[in-house]
């Protein structure tokens, strides 16, 4: 049995090839593989998360320089963690050397990445996240890009000593909850541009260390932008202030 799902690249229909990565890949009654099936319960019962981990190990082991996840539908597993959620996609100390791009994926689970290391870029393109997403103590050696019609129904939290050695972009994305970026080191430029928020929510940028600064431009419907206790190591303070537009803004800078 083979998955009948196809995705489009430049107008061409490309067939699913996931069976080449996972032997005996489960196929649902609509002929969709574990990654493309829309039957959330069936996916969970057929160990979606275990098989996704297997796919990631395969990508790591064969040293692929880049990999695209197209139209994947994600469900979580039930784990007894501090986060106390029943439906979670949780990775601790994941190491990726590959440029990973998630295209048009749906995440029906909470996503938590803890102490993960991305040696190459991570791109999130036109993906929908129905539950909270947390990045906690991760290291990105290359860019993190979230753009092109992504949506976050719950909070996106980037907390607790994530290190970004390159640029971070969050653009053209819809937020139905807060975007919180707290206690991180950001050595590239952080850009939060052209996003749409809900009036009751906004952006918190708290206690981060920047080298090149950040821009927050052309965002719609932001309830509040709190920018507090960030350290600017480089000479970019003026640059940053010029780029900020006039929201209701609370800014306290510490400049060394
Ligand atoms: Zn498939």
Distance between the termini: 62 Å
What is the CA-based Rg, rounded?
19 Å
Which ligands are bound? zinc ion
Task: Specify the helix fraction band.
Answer: 10-25%
Characterize the structure shown.
The structure is a single chain. This protein has helices at 40-45, 48-61, 237-243; strands spanning 6-9, 12-15, 66-70, 73-74, 88-92, 95-96, 99-103, 106-107, 110-114, 117-118, 122-125, 128-129, 133-136, 139-140, 144-147, 151-152, 156-159, 163-164, 168-171, 174-175, 179-182, 185-186, 190-193, 203-206, 209-210, 214-217, 225-232, 249-255. It is globular and about 55 Å long. It is mainly beta. The chain has 3 helices and 28 strands. Helix content is 11%, strand content 39%. Strands 5, 6, 9, 10, 13, 14, 17, 18, 21, 22, 24, 25, 27 and 28 form a 14-stranded parallel sheet that branches. Among the domains are: 1-10 and 18-105, no CATH class; 176-256, no CATH class. Residues 3, 5, 16, 18, 32-33, 35-36 line the site of zinc ion.
Characteristic terms for this protein:
28 strands, mainly beta, 14-stranded parallel β-sheet, 256 residues, 3 helices, single chain, 11% helix
Draw up the topology in text.
Elements: E1 6-9, E2 12-15, H1 40-45, H2 48-61, E3 66-70, E4 73-74, E5 88-92, E6 95-96, E7 99-103, E8 106-107, E9 110-114, E10 117-118, E11 122-125, E12 128-129, E13 133-136, E14 139-140, E15 144-147, E16 151-152, E17 156-159, E18 163-164, E19 168-171, E20 174-175, E21 179-182, E22 185-186, E23 190-193, E24 203-206, E25 209-210, E26 214-217, E27 225-232, H3 237-243, E28 249-255
Parallel strand pairs: 3-7, 4-8, 5-9, 6-10, 7-11, 8-12, 9-13, 10-14, 11-15, 12-16, 13-17, 14-18, 15-19, 16-20, 17-21, 18-22, 19-23, 21-24, 22-25, 23-26, 24-27, 25-27, 27-28
Antiparallel strand pairs: 1-2
Bound molecules: zinc ion.
């Amino acid at each position: 049995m083979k998955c009948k799902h196809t995705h489009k690249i430049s107008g061409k229909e490309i067939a699913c090839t996931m069976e080449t990565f996972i032997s005996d890949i489960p196929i649902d009654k609509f002929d969709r593989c574990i990654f493309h099936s829309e039957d959330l319960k069936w996916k969970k019962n057929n160990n979606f998360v275990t098989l996704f981990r297997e796919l990631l190990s395969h990508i790591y082991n064969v040293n692929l320089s880049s990999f695209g996840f197209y139209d994947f539908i994600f469900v979580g597993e039930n784990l007894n963690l501090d986060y106390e959620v029943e439906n979670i996609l949780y990775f601790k100390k994941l190491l990726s050397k590959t440029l990973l791009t998630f295209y048009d994926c749906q995440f029906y689970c909470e996503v938590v990445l803890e102490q993960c290391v991305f040696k190459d870029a991570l791109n999130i393109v036109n993906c929908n996240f129905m539950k909270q997403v947390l990045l906690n103590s991760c290291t990105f050696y290359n860019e993190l890009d979230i753009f092109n019609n992504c949506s976050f129904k719950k909070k996106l939290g980037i907390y607790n000593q994530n290190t970004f050695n390159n640029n971070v972009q969050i653009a053209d994305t819809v937020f139905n909850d807060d975007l919180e970026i707290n206690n991180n080191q950001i050595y590239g430029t952080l850009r939060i541009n052209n996003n749409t928020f809900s009036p009751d929510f906004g952006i918190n940028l708290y206690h981060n260390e920047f080298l090149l600064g950040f821009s927050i431009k052309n965002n719609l419907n932001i309830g509040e932008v709190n920018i507090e206790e960030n350290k600017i190591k480089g000479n970019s303070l003026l640059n940053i202030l010029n780029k900020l537009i006039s929201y209701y803004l609370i800014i306290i800078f510490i400049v060394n």
